[in-house]
Design goal:
Layout: E1 3-10, H1 14-30, E2 35-39, H2 44-50, H3 56-64, E3 67-72, H4 88-98, E4 103-109, H5 122-125, E5 129-135, E6 147-150, E7 156-159, H6 166-182, E8 186-191, H7 197-209, E9 217-222, H8 223-232, E10 239-242, H9 244-257, E11 267-269, E12 275-277, H10 296-308, H11 313-328, E13 331-332, E14 342-343, H12 346-359
Parallel strand pairs: 1-2, 1-3, 3-12, 5-10, 8-9, 8-10, 13-14
Antiparallel strand pairs: 4-5, 4-11, 6-7, 11-12
The structure holds nicotinamide-adenine-dinucleotide, 3-isopropylmalic acid and manganese (II) ion.
Subcellular location: Cytoplasm
GO cellular component, one term: cytosol
Catalytic activity: (2R,3S)-3-isopropylmalate + NAD(+) = 4-methyl-2-oxopentanoate + CO2 + NADH
């Protein structure tokens, strides 16, 4: 049966990078993948069109799609909107919540060709292959109560609630343990259990799950130390599991180890294997519209879509190999370019990936 893909380009560099990723999807279709691709606006683009960041009809299309490809949302044009619940980012958060996409996989993989693009020394990063499993529909991002208010004396204050229940922790824990079983069998749970009760519970649940996965070595680390260890000796990690906000921050740090945040794809999955696939980076307003954006994180997100939602592991591997081949040719967008490589535009990078994909 034809699988339905919903493409949501969004804002800033979103449309540029999504275009290149859709070309790769179209190439898969030409190779026999039975898909139908539909596009819709989201985020700031949708605010400008209809006044809300996620139109009800787009949410319905997302719910019935087999997989979603998202570029990025947000930008300075909408950053001054006083009500945060109406901003572009809310469209993305609503998609995650409404589709119950609690399991966010963020693989920080250093392509050997990019060792020199990393901000760390080659001996510290070469061979790096970390999977960050980030909880995506709970924690401080969604906890109630939340708000901004003013006391009687005129003092303004703001507050959010960092809350997880044991079911939410257990289900992301299982995703992470299973991921570790398929990889290097090491799982590091990152928390702040020396300060925050919610993460004492997090640690307890991870420990309770551990006997069910005797082949996985579980360790715990405080988030401040984890941030430090990621830049000190990142290869000590195999799978990291953590909550929504810590995972957001640590995955941007891990991205830089791979050369650029423009290299980090992601999958956000629910219990049925339905997923949304997006680069980990944002809409990069500073480089939007200039052909400077690296489309590889989005193209690699298509590979994750094929692997995790469409059951097409071979086609996924073919995309990843095409990315490797392009890097072998020394082609680089500005973010990963260095002396001795050839700088290309977003579209030229897409062209090169397609050529390599079709040649395979
Ligand atoms: P950002 O990730 O957009 O940009 C950070 C830096 O990385 C910038 O210098 C940018 O030029 C660079 N960069 C990002 N992606 C790149 C790519 N593909 N190629 C080359 N360089 C790239 O983060 P920010 O500046 O903090 O946020 C900008 C906007 O994006 C904000 O509105 C934010 O809310 C939003 N955002 C959206 C998402 C998402 O849609 N998933 C994720 C993060 C941030
Ligand atoms: C990400 C982004 C989002 C997040 C924002 C845009 C809501 O930073 O996907 O990493 O914080 O999850
Ligand atoms: Mn982020």
């Amino acid at each position: 049966m034809t699988k339905r893909i919903l493409a949501l380009p969004g804002d800033g560099i979103g449309p540029e990078i999504t275009r290149q990723a859709c070309r790769v999807l179209e190439a898969c279709r030409d190779e026999g993948l039975d898909i139908d691709i539909e596009e819709a606006p989201v985020g700031g683009a949708e605010i400008d069109r209809s006044g809300v960041p996620l139109a009800p009809e787009t949410l319905e299309k997302a719910k019935s799609a087999d997989a979603i490809l998202l570029g990025a949302v947000g930008g300075p044009k909408w950053d001054t909107m006083p009500d945060i619940s109406k901003r572009p980012e809310k469209g993305l958060l609503a998609l995650r919540k409404e589709l119950n996409l609690f399991g966010n996989l963020r693989p920080a993989l250093l392509y050997p060709q990019l060792v020199e693009a990393s901000s760390l020394k080659p001996e510290v990063v070469s061979g790096l292959d970390i999977m960050i499993v980030r909880e995506l529909t709970g924690g401080i991002y969604f906890g109630q109560p939340r708000g901004r208010e003013t006391r009687e004396d005129g003092t303004r204050y703001g507050y959010n609630t960092y809350i997880y229940d044991e079911h939410e922790i257990r289900r992301i824990g299982r995703v992470a343990f299973e991921m570790a079983q398929k990889r290097g069998k090491k799982l590091c749970s990152v928390d702040k259990a020396n300060v925050l009760e919610v993460t004492i519970l997090w640690r307890d649940i991870m420990n309770e799950l551990a006997p069910e996965y005797p082949d996985v070595e579980l360790s715990h680390m405080y988030v401040d130390n984890a941030a430090m260890q990621l830049v000190r000796a990142p290869k000590q990690f195999d799978v990291i599991v953590t909550g929504n906000m810590f995972g957001d921050i640590l995955s941007d740090a891990a991205a830089m180890l791979t050369g650029s945040i423009g290299m980090l794809p992601s999958a956000s999955l629910n219990e049925h294997g339905q997923g949304m696939f997006e680069p980990c980076h944002g809409s990069a307003p500073d480089i939007a519209g200039q052909g400077l954006a690296n489309p590889l994180a989005t193209i690699l997100s298509v590979a994750m879509m094929l692997r995790y939602s469409l059951n097409e592991a071979d086609m996924a591997a073919r995309i990843e190999q095409a990315v490797g081949a392009v890097l072998d040719q020394n082609l680089r967008t500005a973010d990963i370019a260095y002396t001795g490589t050839r700088q290309v535009t977003t579209e030229e990078m897409g062209d090169a990936v397609l050529t390599a994909f079709n040649a395979a």
